[in-house]
Amino acid sequence: MNSVTSEIGGSQKVRGVANSFTLIELLVVIAIIAIIAAMLLPALSKAKETAKCVQCLNNMKQLTGGWVMYADDNNQQLAYNWVNNDGSGLAPAGCWVTGWVRTLPGTTNEAWVRAGTIFPYTASLGIYQCPDAPLLNNHVAVRTVSINNRMGGANTLSLKINPGVWDSSSCLGPNYPIFKKLTNIRSPSPASAIVCVDESINTVDDGMLVLTTNMWQNSPTIRHSPKGCNFSFADGHVERWQWIGLAVDQGFNITPSPGTLQYQDFEKMLAHVTGP
Length: 276
Description:
alpha+beta; two-stranded antiparallel sheet; 7 strands
């Protein structure tokens, strides 16, 4: 850099000092900023995902709290978890949620959620949704959580109340009867018995998530990175599980092969539905 000086009254004074960056110096600064940003972005992305998972767990905890309060106010009777047997796939009136979300307009029908028997105990549409769920039918689904079929599902006694519902007790058979009251939940214990499930966007439909003894009829999600799913339990606590075999959100009626990692995931979930 050059500077120009002048003498005034026997002293020197500096004029016009050049302070600008050279092009090389500017490029070095830009490169450093890019490196720092590249280092920070994964951490920020992970923090964002963690926040969504925590919000989902909190939503599920509130929802399960409403489910328990409903039972407490109804002589321990669990909220009905039924589906019509007319091919419509709809959860009928009088259930914990009504309708279904698989297709439009049900995907966005808030009225069907509000009509559920536990909604007065939750009073928030947001807690029925996972904040990390992808769009369904190009819309945010009004509900992405379902309840384990064994919790309040229909059996032959239910048909006396509503002859038009599907007897879902056949899914697990007579060894694992439908729980009708909160006090009936003993095997698995309340601390181990799954209630709410963060369901795969590819199978969420009515309010029921069904497992048979060898098949996912509906599937849990893997959307909580890495490969995780949120659950609530009958004692009110919530957990995030990380799958060892499931790698994508599954569709309907998936039978895992014995001996595979996916089968280990299935057996783990089944044990929290049927008990030891």
